[in-house]
Structures are given as C-alpha cells and as structure tokens.
Amino acid sequence: MAGINNQDRWKGRIVTNPEILAGKPIVSGTRISVELILDHLAANWSMTEIIESYPSITPEDILAALAFTADVIRTKPFITVDEIKKGKQS
After folding, report:
1. Are 33 and 25 in contact (CB under 8 A)?
2. Do 34 and 24 meet the contact criterion of CB atoms below 8 Å apart?
3. CA dihedral 22, 23, 25, 29 (to 10 degrees)
4. Spans of the chain, pLDDT less than 70
5. Which one of 2, 11, 42, 89 has the fewest beta carbons within 10 angstroms of its own beta carbon?
6. 3-class DSSP state for residue 57?
7. Which CATH number among 1.20.1300.10, 2.60.40.10, 1.10.10.10, 1.20.58.2050 corresponds to the domain 7-86?
C-alpha cells in the first residue's frame, strides 16, 4: 500500500493550534484530539459510542483521525515498542 496518501480524507478536518491542547492534532472546531479518538477505538468503543459521547464530531471525523494517523506513521520516523513501553519519544 505504499504511496497511499490520505490527506484528502483528513485535510480540513484534522488541524493543529498551539493554543488548543498544546498543539496536538484535533478535530477542527473542537477540542477533541486525534489521540482521544484513537484511545477510545483501542478501548473497543464503537463509532456510535464515540459520537454519542462527543456529539460535535461525525463518523467522517473519526475516519479522518484514522487517515491522519496512517499518514503520520507513514511519514514520521518509527520508534520501537520498547521505547513506547519505557515512555520514550523520538
């Protein structure tokens, strides 16, 4: 799947602002971070449960968060699982 670019899916939906959540990527117009969405999905929350808890976001916003994350992983240097376990960041 090399060469996939999801930017069209997340562009305009996922933004950063240094004055909101210390510049973490968020859903545009909200204070809901991509990290929060991923944490909920990892905890086995459904899209419906996330939207019910955060009604200012849409299914498209959740998919945009996933697309953004895929692009970040594809373009940023990797860190090892051991580094994450130890709390290190590169």
Report:
1. yes
2. yes
3. 90
4. 1-3, 88-90
5. 2
6. coil
7. 1.10.10.10
